[in-house]
Write a structure and sequence with these properties.
Strand content: 15-25%
Bound molecules: adenosine-5'-triphosphate, 6-O-phosphono-beta-D-fructofuranose, magnesium ion
Structural class: alpha/beta
Oligomer: single chain
CATH topology of the largest domain: Rossmann fold
CATH class of the largest domain: Alpha Beta
Number of domains: 2
CATH architecture of the largest domain: 3-Layer(aba) Sandwich
Number of strands: 17
Largest sheet: 11 strands, mixed
């Protein structure tokens, strides 16, 4: 893997504390590039649209809650079609790759990049890279046409295949160059965007006219800056089925306890939103919020209380929660996947066993059912709102690359589509802020203990960062158009 961040961000300062964190453009390192008129001008669908082209000066502010004396703050370039193109339709040879874990909506994004290139810009050379980054140099490619991708949005997974590991920057850029590819669309999570960033840097170092566009994919919603990632709504919706089953089982037996494990390696957004949506959950445990089992204020005490009050309870636990407790009691595996992500131990199974042992000690009969729907949640096709979202993200990526922007990730910020420099989306992970109002809303909805001592709160406050839409609760299920 290469290291990213050697190229300085493009920062533009304006009046009253205005800052534009701009994205790179091919003209930053290649001079005298010819420009072309945007073919959308003569496209019957668009020629009637007033102000269809985005004004070069349009930018979107990152923080929308301001005070009267606040500086104007950080902005991102608005996504969308430009008047002038830096690629001629015939000249474009695009490729698409999907990397990392699955997520609902991958196929929709692939479909809409292909259809956007063909139908909006008259491009007819689009390649699919088979099996993630390593596919660039070790696998065959697949020709993608609107016909090939016509129905794929109805299927889960990715028709291109995906993988972890295998990011060899020079081999990938050699392959891009050898094949004559000049637009690279990279769909994947935080690791993938880091990989995309080093690919962009190497392309730039070699002075190649190749646009690199990232489309952030993460079921965990762990990519910062953007309001939320595609597939997230679908995942939360599908999680309801598992929670519902856990609730039905728990309710039907004496001292019934349903435990549901959901995805979320470092970020507990799926668990938090699935809990808030369901109302059947009595306790939600996420990686960001430490908890303990025994003693006063611990989980066991709370379970006893809920069983006494209600006769049953449902616990939702994110896979990354309580890993510190697990490694205390089980021998830590310290194994990593091919991309270097820590392999987690099954916290749901561990917790179920600990609860059983605890109640056996107190001679209380319980009926515990453990449901692990993790892969079922991410292997399904995207729902209607995610399909619309994926379509707009794909179109934004195509408009950006055609206009000569590169080294960017597309993303919705405060409901508007933007181009965000890679550096901004790879510098940290988006996490649930447990000192934010959204987590407080969850706690007051479940009535669970916070399990926090004052030291944890101080630590959490130190890590606090500006809230995204998902954090401060202004969630928009259908993001607005560009
Ligand atoms: N720092 C890095 N530099 C270059 N490539 C990287 C880096 N981190 C990860 N990659 C590459 O990105 C690809 C995907 O990474 P990873 O498996 O971590 O998934 P991801 O994109 O984070 O998606 P998710 O975690 O949501 O499933 C892998 O092929 C991996 O080799
Ligand atoms: O088993 P895999 O494919 O590595 O994926 C598991 C991981 O993928 C994620 O969903 C991220 O895509 C994590 O929440 C989870 O730990
Ligand atoms: Mg990741």
């Amino acid at each position: 893997m290469g290291s990213s961040g050697t190229i300085q961000m493009k920062i533009v300062n304006g009046d009253s504390g205005y800052v534009l964190e701009d994205v790179p453009h091919l003209t930053d390192y290649i001079s005298d590039l010819p420009t072309y008129s945007n073919p959308l001008k003569s496209n019957p669908a668009y020629s009637v649209v007033k102000q269809y082209f985005v004004d070069e000066d349009d930018t979107i502010v990152q923080k929308i809650v301001v005070h009267k004396d606040s500086p104007r703050g950080v902005h991102f370039r608005r996504a969308g079609p430009r008047q002038r193109m830096y690629f001629e339709s015939d000249e474009v040879h695009a490729c698409i790759v999907t990397c990392g874990g699955l997520c609902p909506g991958l196929n929709t994004v692939i479909r809409e990049i292909v259809c956007g290139l063909y139908h909006m810009y008259g491009v007819n050379k689009v390649l699919g890279i088979d099996g993630g980054y390593k596919g660039f140099y070790s696998r065959n490619t697949v020709g993608l046409t609107p016909k090939v991708v016509n129905d794929i949005h109805k299927r889960g997974g990715t028709i291109l295949g995906t993988s972890r590991g295998g990011h060899d920057t020079s081999k990938i850029v050699d392959s891009i160059n050898d094949r004559g590819i000049n637009q690279v669309y990279i769909i994947g999570g935080d690791g993938t965007q880091k990989g995309a960033s080093v690919i962009y840097e190497e392309i730039r170092r070699r002075g190649l006219k190749v646009a690199v566009a990232g489309i952030p994919k993460t079921i965990d919603n762990d990519i910062p800056v953007i309001d939320k990632s595609f597939g997230f709504d679908t995942a939360v919706e599908e999680a309801q089925r598992a929670i519902n089953a856990a609730h039905v089982e728990a309710e039907s037996f004496e001292n019934g306890i349903g435990v549901v494990k959901l995805m979320g390696r470092y970020s507990g957004f799926i668990a938090m939103y699935a809990t808030l949506a369901s109302r059947d959950v009595d306790c939600c445990l996420i990686p960001e919020s430490p908890f303990y089992l025994e003693g006063q204020g611990g989980l066991f005490e709370y379970i006893e209380k809920r069983l006494k009050e209600n006769g049953h309870m449902v616990i939702v636990i994110a896979e990354g929660a309580g890993q510190d407790l697990l490694s205390e009691s089980l021998q830590s595996m310290n194994q990593k996947d091919a991309s270097g992500n820590k392999l987690l131990q099954d916290v749901g199974l561990w917790m179920s066993q600990r609860i059983k042992v605890h109640f056996a000690k107190t001679k209380t009969v319980i009926n515990l059912k453990y449901i692990d729907p993790t892969y079922m949640i991410r292997a399904i096709p995207s729902n209607a709102s995610d399909n619309v979202y994926c379509t707009l993200l794909a179109q934004s990526a195509v408009h950006g690359a055609m206009a000569g922007y590169t080294g960017f990730t597309v993303g919705v910020v405060n409901g508007r589509h933007t181009y965000i420099p890679f550096n901004r989306v790879i510098e940290k992970q988006n996490k649930v802020v447990i000192t934010d109002r959204m987590w407080a809303r969850l706690l007051s909805s479940t009535n669970q203990p916070s399990f926090l001592d004052p030291k944890d709160v101080t630590e959490a406050k130190k890590e606090e960062e500006p809230p995204t839409q998902l954090l401060d609760g202004n969630i928009q299920l259908t993001p607005s158009a560009t």
